[in-house]
Write a structure and sequence with these properties.
Low-confidence stretches: 145-154, 180-189, 206-210
Domain UspA: 30-174
Mean pLDDT: 74
Oligomer: single chain
Protein name: UspA domain-containing protein
Distance between the termini: 69 Å
Organism: Saponaria officinalis
Length: 210
């Protein structure tokens, strides 16, 4: 008797997941990474995550890659920031991150702030996301060094890189207006900042080496 092709069982081939990515076990908290570069786009991604994605029990980490203390130029070689300039920049960064994190505090969602120093923002982001074992990344579509002259239809270079190189799923949040970008430039010790869910008070944040 001839078997019709429609009667034959469908064979579904399931590809194995990346050996570097381990999905969260059932019942385990999701580890959510939100890269922030102190721009309006980063702030919008945090607000979007609070309103549309995060749920009770999620472990949220804001990841910021700040520039190293050495600048390099073809003509003058390396130039170091002064200790005073470093301290002032760190204070400015902490204050801005506190502003960006306010929606998390308002929603009573606990979070950590993970700050690392590197000259290559996009590669270091992917490395930290893998090292910290994140379940998913939520990030803005622009900012992170994107220029105003770039096509509005294109992703920023960092978000595009993360989409193609992160070991876990990446959710890219489109900013409603591409105007008003305020990106911050881009191997030293990593610092983790822990904050309570009630409020963001920079003076009460606890810094410890990672």
């Amino acid at each position: 008797m001839e078997t019709k092709s429609s009667d034959r069982p469908t064979v579904i081939e399931v590809q194995p997941p990346s050996p570097r990515y381990t999905a969260a076990a059932a019942g385990a908290p999701r580890k959510i990474a939100i890269p922030v570069d102190l721009s309006d786009e980063s702030a919008y991604a945090v607000s979007w995550a609070v309103q549309n994605y995060l749920r009770p029990g999620d472990a949220v980490t804001l990841i910021h890659v700040r520039p190293t203390s050495v600048l390099y130029g073809a003509d003058w070689g390396s130039t170091h920031f002064s200790a005073a300039a470093e301290e002032e920049f760190d204070s400015l960064t902490a204050g801005k991150i506190a502003e960006i994190a306010q929606p998390l505090a308002d929603a009573k969602i606990g979070f950590k702030v993970h700050v690392v120093k590197d000259h290559d923002m996009k590669e270091r982001l992917c490395l930290e996301i893998e090292r910290l074992g994140m379940s998913v990344v939520i990030m803005g579509s622009r900012g992170f060094g994107a220029s105003r002259s770039s096509s509005k239809a294109r992703l920023g270079s960092v978000s595009d890189y993360c989409v193609h190189h992160c070991v876990c799923p990446v959710v890219v949040v489109r900013y409603p207006d591409d105007d008003g970008l305020h990106p911050v430039p881009e191997e030293e010790a990593a610092i983790t900042v822990e904050a309570e869910a009630d409020e963001v008070d920079v003076s009460k944040m606890h810094l410890h080496a990672d």
